Amino acid sequence: MNKFLEVALAAAREAGAVLLVEHSRPQKISYKGEVDLVTETDKRSEAIVVGRLRREFPDHRIVAEEGSAGAAGASRYEWHVDPLDGTTNFAHGYPCFAVSIGLLEDGHPLVGVVFNPVSDELFSAARGAGAFLNEKPIHVSKMEKLATSLVSTGFPTHNRAANLNIHYYWQLTLRSHGVRRDGSAALDLCSVACGRFDAFWEFGLHSWDTAAGILMITEAGGKVTDLRGGTYRAGGTDLLVSNGLIHSEMQAIMVEVAANAAKL
Question: Mapping DSSP to helix (H, G, I), strand (E, B) and coil, where does residue 63 land?
Fold first, then answer.
C-alpha cells in the first residue's frame, strides 16, 4: 500500500476512536469567534494526527485547523488536517462529523482520507488509484439533470450577513430535487464521490476542509472547479463539485445568481 495513504488511514482511525468515545460526553467548549467553536476533543484529535505525521514524515509541512505546524522550511509535501470537521454537530451530539487528512504534493492532491467514526465509514483515495469506501470502489452518480438531483451546501460561521449563499441556496432549492446542509464539508464531498449527493458547493472553505475530499471526487470520476468553472485549489474562495454530468447546469445557475446578487 502507498506509505502516505497507509499512515493517513492509521491516523484517521486512531483519532476517530477518540471522537467516537467522546461525542456523547458533555464538551468543554471555547470560541474562536462569535459562533466558531472548538472543543477539547478537536485538540486531542489533532495531537494524535499531527503527532503521527511528524514521526513518520518529519520533513513534511503540516497545516492543521487548530494551529499545529509541521517542519520549518519548504517541502513539496504538505499535509492538511481537520481533526474534527463538523465541530458544531459534534458539540450538539449530532452524529455527522469526521477526521479529514489530505496530502498535497507541490500543491496538488496526492492522498485523501476522511473517516466518520459514528457510521464507521472510511473514505480513501490516492492519485491515479481510485476512491474507496471501506476498501470498496466508489463512483459518482449518473444523474443527468439538476431537477432530479440531490445537492448539498454549507454556510460560514463568520460574517454570515455578508455571505450571499442564501441566494444560491434559494435558487438551487427551487431547481433541484432538494438541498441538504449537513455541516461537514469533508463528508459532503465524500457523499458526492460515492453518489449520495450529485453536487456540492460552498464559499470560504479552508484547505483542511477540502484537501482530502476534492481528491475523492476526481478519483471517483467527478468534477472539481470554482463556481465560475475555473481551477480550484484547496483553500480557494469558492468550490463547486459534481458528478460532472450536471456541472455545467449548476455553473450556469451560479453565474446567474451572482449577477442578480450584484444588483442588490
Answer: strand
Q: Give the domain extent around 202.
A: 146-262
- Lowest model confidence (mean pLDDT) among 16-25, 154-163, 233-242, 252-261: 154-163
Q: Quick check: pTM over 0.85?
A: yes
Give the whole-angstrom CA distance, residue 203 versus residue 259. 16
**What is the C-alpha radius of gyration for the chain, rounded to an integer number of angstroms?**
18
Do 83 and 171 fall within a single domain?
no
The grid cell for 204 is 470560504
Q: Are residues 9 and 118 in the same domain?
A: yes
Boundary-marking domain end, from 84, 119, 137 = 137
Q: Which H helix or E strand runs over 48? A: helix 40-56
Q: Are 185 and 202 spatial neighbours (Cβ–Cβ below 8 Å)?
A: yes
Q: Are strands 61-64 and 29-31 parallel, antiparallel or unpaired?
A: unpaired
